[in-house]
Structure formats: C-alpha cells, structure tokens
C-alpha cells in the first residue's frame, strides 16, 4: 500500500519571503498571473471544441434577445414552482394564464437588458438569475410560515425580522440556509473566474437605449395589461393577487406602488365639502368627565374562535370565557386587512380609522409614513377630551417601529417588553399575555382621570410546531388526519386557551378598580395554519372575532364590523365625537360615496395639503411620548467576594443594562431588584446608571445617574441643558440606526 506523505509547511521560508517582499515583486506576480489567465483563455478559444462551437456562439449572439427572453420564461417558471410549492400548480398557472406568465417574464427580461453593458455577459446573466430565484425562494419560504407573500415592505422590517430568526428557523434550517448561501456565493465566484467574455465590439450607448426601451416597454405593457384586465393594480387580497398575477409583477408593484395616489377629484372645494367645512375636526361629548369610561382595546395576536373551523373538534371549549362574553355583550365577525401576518396594519386601521385598501399592495404605513410623520389617532382624539393615552406590547419596543409610531400618534406612554418583568414564555419563545394585566393597571395609574389603553398581545404568534411540543395539553384536538398538522393545531388552540384565561384575568382586574370601563377584544388576523375560505363557517379568510365588554350597561348590539370602523363605533356608543376620521365614519357610514370620500380624506390628511385642518388646525404637531411608566431605581452597589459588583434597586427587567461612564457593561439580570456585573471595574469618580435597552442598543429610558465614591453613591442632579443634550443624543442615535 502506497504511503501518503504530508509535506511539512515551510513557515520559516515563508516568513523570509514576506519580509523581503517588494512592490515590484507583487506587480510582476499579478502581471504574470494575468498573462497566464490570458494564455488559458486563448487556449480555450483555439481549442477544437471552441472552434466547433464558434458558429453556435455566433448565432447565439445574433439571437441573444429572443434567447434571453426564453431564459426569463424559464426563471419565471421556476420562481412560480418555488412560490406555489408545486410543479403542477406552476404548470397550470403558466398554461392557464399564458398572457400573465409572459407579462411577468417580460419584466425579468427587461432587467436582463443591463447585460449588454458588460463584456462578462454570461456572468451578469447568472447574477440576475440568482437574484430573481433568491426573491422567489424568499417568497416560497415565507408562504410556508404565513399566508401573506414576500413583498417590498418586508425589506423595511428586515432588521426586526433578523431578531426573530430563532422564532422562524430551527437550528437545522439556519445551518442549511448558511451552507446554501455560502455555496451559491462560491459558485458565483467560480463562474466569474471561469466565465468567458464577449469578444465583439461593445455598443454601450445602444445598450443604454435598450435598457430605456425595456423599462418603457414594460410600463406601456403594464398599462395595456391593466386596461385589458390581464392584471390589476388593486390587490384586495395580496395572497390571491400573487397567485393570479405572478410574483415578479406583484413584488415590483409592492416596491414602487406605495402610499395613496392622488384621486382625480381631489381639490380644496371637494375637501371642504367632505370635511363639512372643517367641522369633522371638532371634539365633543355630552358625557360629564366623571362619567366618561376608561376605554381599553386589546389586540389578540393571531386570535379567532377555533370552532369557526368546520372540521376541527376539541375535547372541550377552548375559549369558555370569551364564549360567555360573546353571549352577553356586543360581538361579531371582525374584518381585518391581512391574513397570517400584518399585525401592524390591523393596528393602523383600528387606531386611525383609515382603510388599508387605498394604500399600495403589501404596504405597512408604520414603516413608511407614520414612522416619520405625526398622524392623528384615537390617542389624539381622546387626549383632546382629557384622557390619558397608554400603549402596551409584550414584544420589543422597536418592532414595527412602534417606539416612533406611537409617539407620532400622540400616546403619552408606551410600555414594551423592555419594561416588563417577563418570566414566562411559550415553547416558541414568545412572552405569555398574563404579564400584560399588571402592566395595564400600572399604566392606568399614571393618570387620576380616565384612560385610553391600547394593548397588543403576542402569545398566539406563529409559527406552530408540527412536532409534539406540549406534554399535557389541556385541550385535545381531533379532526385532522395528518399528525404534523394536528400537532400544530393543538399547539395553537392551547395558546388560544391561555389567551382566553388572560381575557378573564384582565376583566377581573378592571372590575376591581370600580371605574366605568369599556374593553374591546379582537383578533388581528387568522393564524398561519393553511386555512382556506371553504374551511371556515364564515367562508371568508379576513374575518376574526371581536367582543365589547363594559360595566356601564351598554346595549348588546351584535354585528360584523371592519377594523377601520371599530373605534368610531365604540366612540359613537359612548357619545364621543372626536377625531376627523372617526367623526367621518359616524356621519357618513353607509352613505353614497362613503368609501371614495374616505379615500380622499385619507389622502388629504397624509399626502395632500390637509385642507381638512385649515379651520381648526392639525390635532397633533409633535409627539411627547415617554417609554415606560417607571424609572429603574439604583439604591446600592455591593462588591462581592470575587470582586464582581451587584446593583440593588427596583424596577429592573431582563432588558436593564448598567452603564459606567456611559459605556454599557456585561449585565446579568438576577431579579427585579438586583443586577450583577462581571468583569467591570468601578473607581472613585465614575458615573453609573441603569438603562432599559431595546434592539440595536436603543436606550428607551434611564435611571438617575450617580457618582461612585468610597463605595457609596451620590445622585448627580441633571440640569435642563444636560437633559436636553441627552434627548438630542437619543434622537441622533435613532437617526443613525434608521
């Protein structure tokens, strides 16, 4: 047997060469390398195979445009295979709607026109092909996790999504994803090294003209396709739109078609008529202040009544508390703007009274308009009547930019998970909703009068495991033959059962306050469990459920209602007439031109000249919100035997971080009164404080700052200038992060 000899690396010789290396040597090395490369290419061009293929290459160059379109068709087909998770469904789509298929292929073809600007045409085609297939793969994977397809707005929440990677990918999937990405990158690099170059004369001006022609051709073809109803520029259902009109067109539409287009009838005169010469902006109520109730809205993540599924069976009623509320209080179906995802869009409709149907397909106003502009909402409508406005969410404060959005909507406080002492989570890592009860009570205690509290839960969030996860589930689920799907449904139903318990706990806590109150519970969208309209009793994928509980004797009034109408409906029952959009719903619902005039009003307020505000002024010009309702408190610093430090105080959470001289320390959360520091050093004269820190190291709120001296702390009294400088520093940090 032949022995294998491993040559010992000549480390010493290599180091000598490196020390004696000169710039001239480097230059000659790369020159020789280039010459070798040219020699190899020349040998390939003069090889027998190359000579035989020269006539073929010649004809391929002459027919490059039709061949390029054929490549676009192939890529488009594979995108649809990935998106639809089925070769046969993609084939049926291609053969059943050939005009739509060819139109989408033309979009891909138009992007391929840039290859004529480069000599490495094959390599550029490979890059573009990988790009389109990558987008299709993203869409296909997201459709496995939710009903809403991949759209341009997902790119705007990418930073938030990366923080939730573990919630959507298991360890094996993360490893395989990393391996796949590295493999593709290495393959692309190898193709760049091995790929040939176009040897003919370059006509770059002609190539630029071709690119312009491709863009103009696609725009013209789009208008023709819309006019002939081959495609549509309105997506009433984004998931169905992707199925009907193809991924390339729908993704491009979500990228470029954003905001609300100016309606043709928009004018100052029209807006004066719609706003009743500014009367819509008035705020009034006949209720004396002492009779005005607390108004609490609770958005339940992925909630709907599971018994709405025709074929699902349960060992017992999974929502006994909500079922009782449905029978005794106003309830019905709740029409939401999305399925399987899009929590923030349901929030937007509820808080503003605006309809998502007028925005671009797949848009999240939280990540576009409201992130950078103030906007009147239920918070501004009620604060104008003396209410306090509180927002809560047991998830990260930066998720969907809520820390900015709630400020721009006029809330007084926002309590995110960074301010909650979360000790219980679901098996998938989401905070349980029971933590919201004490935090809602604390938020209501910030004012002596009435409160508007808007709460967003997270416990029911997907995805839902197909493997057995719950050891002893309270609710057993049957009616599903596939074991994986049954496990997913059983997990979801038991989380809904826990949410039902939270509803009962919250009502009990509200009743104990002995204050007039109204609490509205509703689901933001259906769960990501592959439901179809035929599976539901309502035969509609955009229905969840709502109920309006109260202790003031409101008449039970059942009915179905849209998310953008619910706030106006509750206000009307309480004789509250405040907020431009809410007043519009109360006065114009079910009248002629109701929806078209609503579109005009939304456009005027958000993108137009705000004619509706000319008489009484805008309800909000800047935000004033504070994160959380309590400061973290530092009471003492104790040096442990091993030299580490323990910070004792109050209101600490897992997101509490200690800063020494404005530098964040490695902080270990022990409990709500103790934080431990490891590998930190305190010297006389050092400053110390505790901050509640969100994603991207965003500091939401800080404790008082102390000076450390002789083992003791003394408070540093901040001047108005130092406080203002701190606020400016936070603003600068946020601007850099965005």
Key words describing this protein structure:
Alkaline Phosphatase, subunit A, Immunoglobulin-like, 3 domains, 9-stranded mixed sheet, 23 strands, about 45% helix, transmembrane helix, Arylsulfatase, transmembrane, cell membrane, OpgB/LTA_synthase_biosynth
Question: Could you give a quick summary of the protein structure above?
Answer:
The chain is of the alpha/beta class. The protein has 3 domains: 43-254, no CATH class; 293-559 and 605-611, 3-Layer(aba) Sandwich (Alkaline Phosphatase, subunit A); 629-713, Immunoglobulin-like (Sandwich). The chain has 26 helices and 23 strands.
Describe the overall structure:
Residues 719-738 are annotated as: Disordered. This is Arylsulfatase. This protein has 738 residues and is α/β, with parallel strands linked by helices. The protein has three domains: 43-254, no CATH class; 293-559 and 605-611, Alkaline Phosphatase, subunit A (3-Layer(aba) Sandwich), CATH 3.40.720; 629-713, Sandwich (Immunoglobulin-like), CATH 2.60.40. 45% of the residues lie in helices and 14% in strands. The protein is built from 26 helices and 23 strands. The strands form five sheets. A nine-stranded mixed beta sheet has the order 11-4-10-9-2-7-5-6-13, with helices on both faces. Strands 16, 17, 20, 21, 22 and 23 form a six-stranded antiparallel beta sheet that branches. A four-stranded antiparallel beta sheet has the order 14-15-19-18, with no helix packed on it. Strand 16 and strand 17 form a beta hairpin. Mean pLDDT is 88; it is low at 721-738.
């Amino acid at each position: 047997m032949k022995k294998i000899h491993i040559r010992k690396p000549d480390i010493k010789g290599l180091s000598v060469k490196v020390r004696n290396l000169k710039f001239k040597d480097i230059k000659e090395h790369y020159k020789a390398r280039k010459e070798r490369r040219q020699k190899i290419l020349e040998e390939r061009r003069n090889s027998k195979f190359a000579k035989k293929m020269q006539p073929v290459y010649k004809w391929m160059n002459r027919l490059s445009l039709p061949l390029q379109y054929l490549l676009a068709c192939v890529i488009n087909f594979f995108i649809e295979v990935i998106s639809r998770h089925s070769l046969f469904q993609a084939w049926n789509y291609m053969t059943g709607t050939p005009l739509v298929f060819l139109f989408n292929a033309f979009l891909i073809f138009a992007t391929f026109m840039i290859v004529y600007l480069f000599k490495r045409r094959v390599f550029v085609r490979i890059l573009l092909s990988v790009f389109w297939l990558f987008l299709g793969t993203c869409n296909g994977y997201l459709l496995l996790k939710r009903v809403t397809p991949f759209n341009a707005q997902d790119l705007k929440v990418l930073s938030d999504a990366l923080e939730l990677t573990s919630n959507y990918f298991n360890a094996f999937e993360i490893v395989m994803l990393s391996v796949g990405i590295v493999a593709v990158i290495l393959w692309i690099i190898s193709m760049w090294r091995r790929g040939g170059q176009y040897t003919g004369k370059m006509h770059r001006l002609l190539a630029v003209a071709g690119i312009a022609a491709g863009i103009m051709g696609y725009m013209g073809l789009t208008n023709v396709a819309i006019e002939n109803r081959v495609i549509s520029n309105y997506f009433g259902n984004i998931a169905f739109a992707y199925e009907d009109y193809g991924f390339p067109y729908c993704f491009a539409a979500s990228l470029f078609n954003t905001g609300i287009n100016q309606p043709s009838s928009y004018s100052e005169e029209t807006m004066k008529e719609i706003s009743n010469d500014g009367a819509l902006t008035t705020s009034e109520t006949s209720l004396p202040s002492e009779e005005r109730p607390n108004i609490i809205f609770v958005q339940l993540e992925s909630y709907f009544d599971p018994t709405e599924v025709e074929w699902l069976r349960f060992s017992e009623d999974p929502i006994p508390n909500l079922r009782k509320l449905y029978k005794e209080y106003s309830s019905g179906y709740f029409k939401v703007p999305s399925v399987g995802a899009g929590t923030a869009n349901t929030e937007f409709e509820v808080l503003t009274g605006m309809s998502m149907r007028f925005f671009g397909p797949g848009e999240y106003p939280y990540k576009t308009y409201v992130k950078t502009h103030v906007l009147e909402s239920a918070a501004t409508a009620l604060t104008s009547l003396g209410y306090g406005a509180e927002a809560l969410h047991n998830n990260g404060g930066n998720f969907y930019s809520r820390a900015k959005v709630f400020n721009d909507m006029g809330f007084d406080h926002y309590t995110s998970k960074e301010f909650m002492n979360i000790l219980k989570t679901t098996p998938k890592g989401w905070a349980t909703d029971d933590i919201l009860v004490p935090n809602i009570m604390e938020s209501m205690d910030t004012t002596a009068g009435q409160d508007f509290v808007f709460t967003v839960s997270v416990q029911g969030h997907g995805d839902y495991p197909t493997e057995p996860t719950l050891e002893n589930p309270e609710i057993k689920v049957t009616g599903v033959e596939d074991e994986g799907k049954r496990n997913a449904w059983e997990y979801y139903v038991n989380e809904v059962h826990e949410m039902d318990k939270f509803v009962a706990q919250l009502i009990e806590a509200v009743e104990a306050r002995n204050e007039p109150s109204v609490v509205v519970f509703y689901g933001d969208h259906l769960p990501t469990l592959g439901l179809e309209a035929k599976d539901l009793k309502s035969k509609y994928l955009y229905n969840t459920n709502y109920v309006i509980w109260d202790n003031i004797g409101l008449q039970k009034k059942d009915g179905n209602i849209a998310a953008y109408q619910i706030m106006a409906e509750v206000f009307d029952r309480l004789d509250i007439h405040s907020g431009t959009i809410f007043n519009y719903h109360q006065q114009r619902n079910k009248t002629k031109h109701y929806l078209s005039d609503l579109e005009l009003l939304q456009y005027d307020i958000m993108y137009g000249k705000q004619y509706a505000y000319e008489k009484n002024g805008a309800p909000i010009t800047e935000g004033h919100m504070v994160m959380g309702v309590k400061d973290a408190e530092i009471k003492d610093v104790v040096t442990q035997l091993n030299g580490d430090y323990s910070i004792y105080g109050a209101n600490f959470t897992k997101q509490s971080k200690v800063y020494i001289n404005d530098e964040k320390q490695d902080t270990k959360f022990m409990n709500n009164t103790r934080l431990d520091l490891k590998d930190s050093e305190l010297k006389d004269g050092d400053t110390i404080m505790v901050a509640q820190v969100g994603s991207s190291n965003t500091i939401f709120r800080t404790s008082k700052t102390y000076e450390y001296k002789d083992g003791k702390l003394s408070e540093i009294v901040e001047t108005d200038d130092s406080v203002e400088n701190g606020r400016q520093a936070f603003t600068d940090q946020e601007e850099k992060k965005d």
